[in-house]
Structures are given as structure tokens and as C-alpha cells.
Amino acid sequence: MRFHFSTLQSLPFGVSLLVASHDENGPS
Questions:
Q1: What's the confidence (pLDDT) of residue 5?
Q2: In angstroms, rounded to a whole number, what is the distance separating the alpha carbons of residues 28 and 26?
Q3: C-alpha distances in angstroms, 12 versus 5, 6, 16, 18, 19?
Q4: pTM for the complete prediction?
């Protein structure tokens, strides 16, 4: 349960990081 909760919290954070990185590398 604790591991599942940790993964659930880490998922949005990882996605946000990925989107931010993609937006930076993407054409403006």
C-alpha cells in the first residue's frame, strides 16, 4: 500500500517533468 501510494505520487511528478522537458525542446 505504501509503495503503491509512493508510485501514485511519483507518477504525476514524472509526467510533469517529462512535459516540461518536451515543451522546452519543442518548437516555440
A1: 76
A2: 6
A3: 12, 11, 6, 10, 10
A4: 0.44
Give the type of residue at 20: A
1, three cell numbers: 500500500
How would you write the pLDDT of the chain (28 residues) with one tens digit per residue? 677 778 778 888 888 888 888 777 765 5
Q: End-to-end CA distance of the chain: give it in Å, rounded.
A: 42
Amino acid letter, residue 16: S
Cell 508510485 -> residue: 7
